[in-house]
Amino acid sequence: MQRLYDFLRRHPTGVDSFWAVLLFGISALVTAEESDRNALAAVGIAAVLCLVVALRRRAPVKMLLLATAAGVAQLVTDTPQQLADFAMLVIIYTVASGTVRWASRFALVGGLLAPLIANLRWSSPDQGVNQHIIGTVFMTVPFVLAWVLGDSMRTRRAYWAQLEERAGRLEKEREQQARMAVTAERARIARELHDVVAHNVSVMVVQADGAAYVLDASPEQAKQALETISGTGRQALAEMRRLLGVLRTEEGGEGGEYVPQPDVEQIGDLVEEVRGAGLPVDFQVEGAPRPLPSGVELTAYRIVQEALTNTRKHGGPDAGASVRLTFFDDGLGLLVEDDGRGAQHELYESGGADGMGHGLIGMRERVGMVGGTLDAGPRPGGGFRISVLLPIKPGGR
């Protein structure tokens, strides 16, 4: 049944042609039975009116003018009303539901005048004035109803078109916000990397200045300073491979204090802090803990922090969470789950509940920076689940 309905919707002219042929056949039979002197003219006018029905959606304005011409031909040839005149109601409805306003007004005026003209042209001498008036009113009502229904359909289509346009605009805005969130998160991570460079290079510059200062007066001290520079440079290079950065205590501040970023060992402190805020958290560590690249450790800490924050915001009053760290030979596995209501997946994707570009977008950017993978979504039994695998060897883009 649905296939038939879809087929009919795809071929509106074919449907209209079917009804036009049916209307013409019935009109021809009725005209043949009457067999009056205007039978040939009546059949010709019926054929024109049925053509109006067949092509009403393909060329509505032209068919309106053709129907008007057929009505004038009826008056000229003295052909009384017939069944095919139903096509005038159909074309009035079609034009009123369209977007050509002058044609809609023309159809309304024609619908109001046609019954009056027909009553004057083919009036019966036995009818009084009151009967003429009542007959005209009754004939006018279908024309007015056809126009009103068509105009209501036009208004409804315009309303739905406006809704679709608005939905498309909102979708584009949502995509733009998501792109802005990605850009903001990348910029934030870039600032972290920039701070690492500035911090380590500044230390090396200070040591080099010290070596230059004592080079002539105390070569032995200069040698020690150079050895210190060498060791510090190697250490800084190793940290640059491992660290995402050192952030200021206040974002965007100038001359602020530099502090090292959290690592995996501090996830336990984070869990305790969240428990103190009223959210039950089950924390487990599997495998043998060992030092990891600081970029990996910072990423793991931030993901746990973001996930628990989202659980606290959106999980509901009775929500609980679990955090599991798994140390593999080649990486770190991270699983964060909660059993609460959970925020909508679209909310995470569009930049997070805080509107600051966090959420899944931020998580994916962080994980991508270290070459890891992230899988997130609602749990089958309720709540939300975030699974992350972070490799030890640096990867990414």
From TrEMBL:
Superkingdom as given in the UniProt entry: Bacteria
Keywords: ATP-binding, Kinase, Membrane, Nucleotide-binding, Phosphoprotein, Transferase, Transmembrane, Transmembrane helix, Two-component regulatory system
Pfam families listed in its UniProt record: DUF7134, HATPase_c, HisKA_3
EC number(s) recorded for this UniProt protein: 2.7.13.3
Coiled-coil positions: none
One Gene Ontology molecular-function label: ATP binding
GO cellular component, one term: membrane
Positions of the Histidine kinase domain: 196-394
CDD domains: HATPase_UhpB-NarQ-NarX-like
Catalytic activity: ATP + protein L-histidine = ADP + protein N-phospho-L-histidine
InterPro entries: DUF7134, HATPase_C_sf, HATPase_dom, His_kinase_dom, Sensor_HK_TwoCompSys, Sig_transdc_His_kin_sub3_dim/P
PROSITE patterns reported for this sequence: HIS_KIN (PS50109)
Transmembrane segments: 12-32, 38-55, 132-150
PANTHER family per the UniProt record, alphabetical: NITRATE/NITRITE SENSOR PROTEIN NARX-RELATED, NITRATE_NITRITE SENSOR PROTEIN NARQ
UniProt name for this protein: histidine kinase
Organism: Streptomyces albireticuli
